[in-house]
Amino acid sequence: MNVTIIGTGYVGLVTGACLAELGNNVFCLDVDQAKIHLLNAGGMPIHEPGLEEIIARNVEEGRLVFSSDPAAATAFADVQFIAVGTPPDEDGAADLQYVLAAARSIGRHMQGFKAVVDKSTVPVGTAEKVAAAIREELAARGADIEFAVASNPEFLKEGAAVEDFMRPDRIVLGVDETPAGERALALLRELYRPFNRNHERTRVMDVRSAEFTKYAANAMLATRISFMNELANLADRVGADIELVRQGIGSDPRIGYSFLYAGTGYGGSCFPKDVDALCRTASENGHGLQILDAVQRVNQAQKKVLLEKVWAQFGRRLAGRSFAVWGLAFKPGTDDMREAPSRSIIEALLRAGATVRAHDPVAQEQAARALAGDLADHPELLRNLTFVPKPLDAAQGADALIVLTEWKSYKSPNLRALREALRSPLVLDGRNIYDLHAMAAAGLTYLGIGRNNLALLKEQMQVAPITVANEVTREEPIEVLVELAAQAAAETKALGEEAS
Ligand SMILES: NC(=O)C1=CN([C@@H]2O[C@H](COP(=O)(O)OP(=O)(O)OC[C@H]3O[C@@H](n4cnc5c(N)ncnc54)[C@H](O)[C@@H]3O)[C@@H](O)[C@H]2O)C=CC1
Ligand SMILES: O=C(O)[C@H]1O[C@H](OP(=O)(O)OP(=O)(O)OC[C@H]2O[C@@H](n3ccc(=O)[nH]c3=O)[C@H](O)[C@@H]2O)[C@H](O)[C@@H](O)[C@@H]1O
């Protein structure tokens, strides 16, 4: 089948490549000409395991093309996927400008029937807006051409996107019960037929329910994470280990093990914006979502738990301190820095006067770009940030190691070499990937998230046990902490000036 994908980002590129891999002819359209040039030159705009090989093979075999020509994209296929970004607007609602621009482009160029399929994550009711935009363009041309707008939300995870797309748990198809809707459904059923060989994975429903399903899934997953993060902070205070608790509850099949890892708060391009957008939809409809409001508040607070631990150990004046950071991407397997915890933590450390040496196997370039933007008001602070080629290089002479992404290559470090490299033997693990006892045996003071095993710490700790720094309360957003850190840096500088 011929298929057009509008938007060649994390979702569009994976969808296009995987559909081509199944034998379809795929036309990938993007307004970003630099991205199209890069793809046509054999380059990759994103890091996603396995994707490069699939793209190379399908381009070579003539089933996958990249272009910025909207007329050619519309003419190419009856099925037009919209996979453009839906970032939050200033109120937290999903900004639909890119989706509606893609819809208008289809309306301007279509000559025959089109099944327009929303793959972007869009609020309930968006399909109707997409249809209205297409109708307006058709009316402007004096054309009357049949089309349907369907919803086919995407559930892939970055870092495992190819695997997730190729082995979906379910394929949600939202269509209207109209002749055009039925026609669209028949095309989509045919396109997804190879995924249903052993099990029927397709769930057909009305469009609004399909749109809602996507937000419900992300909101449920985010809720599990905030739930565990809140319990982890209590575990810290009562001397329990949240990792053992996670295993203890995950073994109940009604609960399951997935998405119960405590950490530095959920990040990435989707959970924060999708939970926010769902809360916006709820309040617009006069039905506030109390659980999700709490999920968001807990997540905001969680982003600063590691910083609180840093401050508890070193105070808020960090001039002269040096920190090693392992992991920059918001999760392993990707170079995506959108809402990555590393950004706010490194920014706060630098603004407090510390130096940072950071390592990430794939995201260093993206991180440098993102942090340059975050510190645009104080670009001189970037001089205190260096990226190093090997994890142990980062630890050399550092006051603490802070682990922010659970890359496989960080899971079994040479602890003796790590201990020797660090100036003070402190490891702050934002991903709970290390064994408490192995750390202690190597002479390292280990602080995870919700793993403050009091007995072990009493035995091992050279430094004061964790207390929350006076001025810091968990209700304050990360921006306030960054501000506090900047004040502390200014105070430190003033003290230095007084002394000299
Ligand atoms: N990133 C992820 O893991 C997932 C994302 N989603 C959803 O999928 C959608 C896309 O997300 P990403 O792929 O991460 O976005 P992205 O930002 O990586 O890519 C979007 C692409 O669309 C292009 N674009 C914008 N307007 C266009 C237009 N009018 N015509 C052609 N191209 C245009 C941009 O240049 C960009 O290359 C969002 O709604 C997101 O919430 C859903 C599941 C997973
Ligand atoms: O709508 C989307 O864009 C996608 O959002 C998430 O995928 P993604 O953001 O790529 O990555 P996740 O693995 O879900 O991680 C999201 C965040 O949650 C954090 N997380 C995840 C799991 C966990 O147990 N604990 C935890 O803190 C991760 O570190 C990361 O910051 C969903 O898992 C996908 O199903 C969905 O399609």
UniProtKB/TrEMBL annotation:
InterPro entries: 6-PGluconate_DH-like_C_sf (IPR008927), NAD(P)-bd_dom_sf (IPR036291), UDP-Glc/GDP-Man (IPR017476), UDP-Glc/GDP-Man_DH_C (IPR014027), UDP-Glc/GDP-Man_DH_C_sf (IPR036220), UDP-Glc/GDP-Man_DH_dimer (IPR014026), UDP-Glc/GDP-Man_DH_N (IPR001732), UDPglc_DH_bac (IPR028357). Residues 324-436 form the UDP-glucose/GDP-mannose dehydrogenase C-terminal domain. It comes from the Bacteria. Pfam families: UDPG_MGDP_dh (PF00984), UDPG_MGDP_dh_C (PF03720), UDPG_MGDP_dh_N (PF03721). The active site is at C270. Its EC number is 1.1.1.22. Pathway: Nucleotide-sugar biosynthesis; UDP-alpha-D-glucuronate biosynthesis; UDP-alpha-D-glucuronate from UDP-alpha-D-glucose: step 1/1. NAD(+) binds at D30, K35, T86, T121, E158, K273, R338. Substrate binds at F155, L156, K157, E158, K214, F259, L260, Y261, A262, G263, G267, K331. It catalyses: UDP-alpha-D-glucose + 2 NAD(+) + H2O = UDP-alpha-D-glucuronate + 2 NADH + 3 H(+). Keywords: NAD, Oxidoreductase. One of its GO terms (molecular function) is UDP-glucose 6-dehydrogenase activity. Gene3D superfamilies: Cytochrome c1, transmembrane anchor, C-terminal, NAD(P)-binding Rossmann-like Domain. This is UDP-glucose 6-dehydrogenase. It comes from Ramlibacter agri. GO terms for biological process: polysaccharide biosynthetic process; UDP-glucuronate biosynthetic process. Belongs to the UDP-glucose/GDP-mannose dehydrogenase family.
